[in-house]
Amino acid sequence: MECQKEKNRQRCPCTYEPCPRKGICCECLRYHLKMRQLPGCCFHEAGERTYDRSFEHFARLVQAGEV
């Protein structure tokens, strides 16, 4: 299966513009999981804009009902 980079890029909610993985979901996911994080697409807009992609931040948002 070929990467749909341009199609993925159009739907990618990540606001970190210089990201070299934008649109390459498999690389993005691999990178963030290695860093003990989730990619920006797992967060709602306000949560993503904090750039805190840690599992702990995600868990706090879930507990607060914000995801």
From TrEMBL:
It comes from Dissulfurirhabdus thermomarina. Pfam families: DUF6485 (PF20095). This is Cytosolic protein.
